[in-house]
Amino acid sequence: MNEITMRLQADHLILEALKEDISSEDVTTNSVMKEYVKGEVQLICKQNGIISGLEVFKRVFELLDERTEVTFYCKDGDAVEEGQLMGIVTGDIRVLLSGERVALNYLQRMSGIATYTHSVAKLLEGTKIKLLDTRKTTPNMRIFEKYAVRTGGGYNHRYNLSDGVLLKDNHIGAAGSVTKAVQMAKDYAPFVRKIEIEVENLDMVKEAVEAGADIIMLDNMDTDIMKEAIRMIGGRAETECSGNVTKENIARLTELGVDYISSGALTHSAPILDISLKNLHAV
């Protein structure tokens, strides 16, 4: 995540997280540390995984005090191991204490997503399939969670509702049919936007192809029906399969010949990566 993106898209979210944690003061820190003392603390990995969110972690402390210095011994996307010293944070001890939990919350969550994504992406090695995330993200965490997916070797689906056309079952219901939904999208959406539609059976597949959809999402279909759907599409649209895809069941999809597999589990079910700030002392 570059500096411009951080300042424009992330700083206000990080500040809100800090305000949530410090509504008036950090009464514990102010009890034990009444004035400035320079200190340092170590960033230590407690579990093997893929690290993601180091710049976000750093930014938490910088927003509390721009004089805080953070030195990293790894970078986003690196494999890290239990017990590894990943960095050192130096600055006002009050800042190190007050920023600790928010900084770790971001880093642990993002690294957990990167780690889980990496484990799923490895199962697709040797295929041409791209692993996609979804909009099933934690509110106000999307920019961080989708970045973590990329760090782990996945790709981002549309970022939000303004980013692309995806006609789902209720949109089709509102429009009246697959054909009407696709036609309405073609009439309304800018020509630079691809039109994707979610289908649940072979009749809908046939209608989506004939209507000229750019991408057809095969949603919650069994393997045999997906094979037939891909045969029917015959390369006339890109294909995506979705619906309760996890690390445990993705293998059944790798031989189908789809272009994309999307999985909400990348963001909504990834456990955190255990990371700590330890050995705080004055310097």
The average pLDDT is: 96
Give the end-to-end Cα distance, rounded to a whole number of Å. Answer: 31 Å
β-strand amount: 15-25%
N-to-C order of helices and strands: HHEEHEEEHEHEHHEHEHEEHE
Low-confidence stretches: none
User: What's the story with the biggest beta sheet?
Assistant: 6 strands, parallel
Number of DSSP-assigned strands: 12
Structural class: alpha/beta
Give me the Rg, rounded.
23 Å
Helicity, in percent?
A: 40-55%
What would the principal axes of the Cα set say about the shape? elongated
Strand order of the largest sheet: 6-11-10-9-8-7
List the total number of helices: 10
Description:
The protein has 283 residues and is an alpha/beta fold. It contains ten helices and twelve strands. The protein has helices spanning 3-21, 27-32, 54-64, 93-122, 142-151, 169-175, 178-188, 202-211, 223-233, 265-268, and strands spanning 38-45, 49-50, 69-72, 79-80, 85-92, 130-132, 165-167, 195-199, 215-219, 238-242, 260-262, 275-282. Strands 6-11-10-9-8-7 form a six-stranded parallel sheet. A four-stranded antiparallel sheet has the order 3-5-1-12, with helices on one face. Helix 1 (3-21) crosses helix 3, helix 7 packs parallel to helix 8 and helix 8 packs parallel to helix 9 (223-233).
